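Hi R.,

Here's the chain you asked about this morning:
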Amino acid sequence: MDIQKYISSGILELYVYGALSEKESREVSALLKKYPEVKNEVEEIERALLNLSAATAPNNAEHLIATIKEKLSNTQRQPKSEETPVRSISWITYSGWAASLLLLIGLFVFFNRTNELREELSAAQARNAQMEDQIANARENAEKAEELLAVIRDKNVQRIPLQGQEVAPEAFASVYWNTEENIAYIDAKDLPEPPRGKVYQVWSLTMQPLTPTSMGLLADFEADDNKIFSLENPNQSEAFGITLEPEGGSESPTMEQLYVLGTVAAP
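And here is the predicted structure, written out as tokens:
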């Protein structure tokens, strides 16, 4: 640690004036015990303040009142030619008080500026953290986009469009089914957000006889920005459907809440 740089930073003056936060004061107290130079500097600052106070102000209120009365009496008794020394002494005293006042004003301005700099630093750090999050999110989104493009372009992936049904004619979804890895990617961006307490459930269907098998739920639908979900599908699917079910899903599809349906094209 560069002790001389620390001493010249002005933080020890703030410590003596009591202008530091509790945490900062504890840090300075710890350094006082560790570095004699820091302790000596603090003692010098304290002595300078005591000397300034002694030079510019009386020791107590009674003494101040007595001094003022004495000077007034001397002014009334002495001839005009002798008024100058009294006035000179008064101006010396007033100059000391003015110096103290200027010091206090300077310290007040310094403290305010220090607080402003701290606030500006905190705001800058917050902006930097926000920017770092945005950059990280952009990178993550780019990586996800690359993964999705790789999935779509894979030769083993088959796209099955799911058309809107009676309950939601404008709804639409797509299934990208990787038959080698038994994974189905559901693009659900054109499905309406489910009502509170409801969830979309994806079904793999075989037609003869009609047998639905649950592939899973489109969980956290509202929070997912790209609305693309991956589900395992080891089934010999002939069609896919998505229904709106109570939260937690159902053992069998609610056909009255069938949102989209699509058949797998014959190879």
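One quick note: Residues 80-94 have pLDDT under 50 and may be disordered.

Cheers,
M.
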